[in-house]
Amino acid sequence: xxxxxxxxxxxxxxxxxxxxxxxxxxxxxxxxxxxxxxxxxxxxxxxxxxxxxxxxxxxxxxxxxxxxxxxxxxxxxxxxxxxxxxxxxxxxxxxxxxxxxxxxxxxxxxxxxxxxxxxxxxxxxxxxxxxxxxxxxxxxxxxxxxxxxxxxxxxxxxxxxxxxxxxxxxxxxxxxxxxxxxxxxxxxxxxxxx
Amino acid sequence: xxxxxxxxxxxxxxxxxxxxxxxxxxxxxxxxxxxxxxxxxxxxxxxxxxxxxxxxxxxxxxxxxxxxxxxxxxxxxxxxxxxxxxxxxxxxxxxxxxxxxxxxxxxxxxxxxxxxxxxxxxxxxxxxxxxxxxxxxxxxxxxxxxxxxxxxxxxxxxxxxxxxxxxxxxxxxxxxxxxxxxxxxxxxxxxxxxxxxxxxxxxxxxxxxxxxxxxxxxxxxxxxxxxxxxxxxxxxxxxxxxxxxxxxxxxxxxxxxxxxxxxxxxxxxxxxxxxxxxxxxxxxxxxxxxxxxxxxxxxxxxxxxxxxxxxxxxxxxxxxxxxxxxxxxxxxxxxxxxxxxxxxxxxxxxxxxxxxxxxxxxxxxxxxxxxxxxxxxxxxxxxxxxxxxxxxxxxxxxxxxxxxxxxxxxxxxxxxxxxxxxxxxxxxxxxxxxxxxxxxxxxxxxxxxxxxxxxxxxxxxxxxxxxxxxxxxxxxxxxxxxxxxxxxxxxxxxxxxxxxxxxxxxxxxxxxxxxxxxxxxxxxxxxxxxxxxxxxxxxxxxxxxxxxxxxxxxxxxxxxxxxxxxxxxxxxxxxxxxxxxxxxxxxxxxxxxxxxxxxxxxxxxxxxxxxxxxxxxxxxxxxxxxxxxxxxxxxxxxxxxxxxxxxxxxxxxxxxxxxxxxxxxxxxxxxxxxxxxxxxxxxxxxxxxxxxxxxxxxxxxxxxxxxxxxxxxxxxxxxxxxxxxxxxxxxxxxxxxxxxxxxxxxxxxxxxxxxxxxxxxxxxxxxxxxxxxxxxxxxxxxx
Lengths: 194, 783
Hints:
The structure holds 2 protein chains of 2 kinds.
Chain A lengths: L7 E6 L3 H12 L5 E6 L2 H10 L7 E5 L12 H7 L6 E5 L4 H9 L4 E4 L7 H28 L3 H15 L3 H21 L3
Parallel strand pairs in A: 1-2, 1-3, 3-4, 4-5
Helix pairs in contact in A: 2-3, 5-6, 5-7, 6-7
Chain B lengths: L1 H8 L2 H50 L1 H6 L3 H11 L4 E8 L27 E4 L3 E10 L10 H5 L6 E11 L1 H51 L13 H68 L5 H31 L8 E4 H10 L2 H7 L2 E6 L6 E4 L1 H18 L4 E8 L7 E9 L33 H11 L3 E7 L3 E12 L25 E5 L3 H14 L2 E5 L2 H10 L4 E5 L7 H10 L10 E5 L6 H7 L3 E4 L4 H14 L4 H8 L12 H7 L4 H29 L2 H17 L3 H17 L5 H25 L1
Parallel strand pairs in B: 6-8, 12-13, 12-14, 14-15, 15-16
Antiparallel strand pairs in B: 1-4, 2-3, 3-4, 5-7, 7-11, 8-9, 9-11, 10-11
Helix pairs in contact in B: 2-6, 7-8, 7-13, 8-12, 9-11, 11-12, 14-15, 20-21, 20-23, 21-22, 22-23
């Protein structure tokens, strides 16, 4: 995500073949190349998400009624809520009731797209969700800075901003870098003998 | 015979079981008898032998005591004998003594001197005891060398009997033993028999099991259930039977299957052939009528242009020819329809008087030209509104009058309608067409109703015609259940008489159709309004358009259904003329869209369908929402009258728009969201193609699944899942109707908490099918 040329990785959790086809077709038109992984049930989604390193999935497009092929499995939202960490996801559903939207938002959805997915409703939702996700990353990074270096929020924020200005990169990239560094640090610590 | 009767009643198990039980019983009896008798004999012999020996010994031992007459001498021996088993009583008598030396006399021996007549061992036997009487004989044999001198000096003679010994032995021991033995034997046999019986029953069950199974399978296959092959197991016979049954059934099934296949193949072939024929007829009808329409229309249009006198004359001739051609063509096509068995009579209320008058009136002009009178006499008592086929009635009258005019050179033609018999339903109506023409000779009367039967078949004949008219008339009248008769005298005239039973319209089923009066509009009359002409054939379009222009209306054209829908979104029309056959969306589909599309200003605009087909699509056109239906070739005057009718009935255009805006609360009920498709998928034909394929496959699958969960599992939750999925699939292709039906079923599930009935399911199925067809058409249209 930090490098704009690197492809984005999306998971499309959708059990309807024709919807998958439409979404794939729509995302082909997106200006950044997207690697789209299909799953068709909640369990597969959970499994796939766990098998990937954290932060490697940029967005999950989730069908709310992810039940069909796996009737006893998890529904879309249940699957997402069972994951150990919050994931960036948008909801794709045929249901446009306010109740359903609220349920999705309560589960942490970053966007809501009513079927049928079209260039008008899916792509904006994806774009907004990606931006939100990056913003969240920035806040997490600022929080991490505060915790590690005992800074106030203002100090941490201004550090990120100054780093962004110095390196001529957007603050979100800096934040990603900080998070990556923290991740790396964790691994390094794990490697050293106690 | 009797055995057979008895045997036939029971199962193998029952027969063998009872035989076994009987056999066991007999065997046990025989064993008991044999063994018991043998044992008894053996034991008795043993007892006798034994007892005789004891008695003999006792006799020997008691000799001294008898001689000396002292019982003490024998007591030891008696005591010893008493200790023997079974010994019951012992008595020793001396000869010539009344009282016994030892014991008492046993029963059965005479009192007194029992020994006197016993010279040899005597046995007396009762059921319980055995008494042996043995004489004690004094022998002077050397076996007693120790005999005392006194004895020798005794005056007793040698070998004389001294007395006798009675030994009574009880048989109860023996009897008891034998009884015990027999009892044990019986018990043993019983146990053995039971065990063997159990074994036999088990074996029997095991043996007969395959037979029973086979029986079940056979019964099953007899009750019409699909053939299940019998399991081959069990004893050799059962296996053989099962195997041959399987083989037989397989053979039967195979031949059944082959037969069915062959029947299906034949049916398919026949259907194909029949369809090909019908299609050919329909196509030909369409192909022929369409250009005819153009010629007719434009000739008519030509008369309105400035023409020279000669041109006018030529034009009239051309029009006369084309009229003839139309009549001929209609005859041929009608005949084709009769031949194809496709003639279906309408059963709708219509105005008979008007129908007859109008049909006859067509010939008024030609009759007038020939100087003939044309009279229509309708009796006042005849019913006016009847149920039947107006078109056929008109055609019959038309043909008969046409013939009459053709063959009459002076005089008049009278058309008369009256009731034949004074009776209530069904009324018997008589329609006569009488002319004063050339008449028909008796020998030719039969010919006129024959196909292609013209009396003057020669080249020089005066009259043209196909010779189909009367034959067609006869077929139609016959189809109505009536008769067509001919009375004629050569040179005087002919009368065609039709008698038909008709059902009149009762007040309850009052006519709902408006009385279409064929009022000829003067060509200078102007009509107001805006008309949309939808026809893929430019000639037809142009013809109708020019006609409408002449009448003073504003005309828009559309060459197919999609264009028509687009035009209908833009403007509000007073009348829409819609061809039935069009590429892409056909007339029916377009009409349905128009009637169902919310927010289009033409939802209530009258639509008149135009069809050139031989098949009667009238009903399907009306069902689709059309208001009337016209057949090609279109007659200009008829067209004008129709325009006049519809344009004058609905003069206001503003009121529609207001009315249309209102039923917006109606759910959208159209098959496809064309706007959505145009916007999102029109420019992606490959995606569209694969989505349509997906749609067809998935909806089929979903329908099956839905059927399963709705009517077999009765599971509302799974049903929701399937519906949801179906909605997603439909939404991708803008199949609004399908979504609508899904929502309907879901609403039933959610609100009423009941499983919806099959109607809703079938509606969904139908909407899916429609959407599929519409999608295919949409894609074809794009290509």
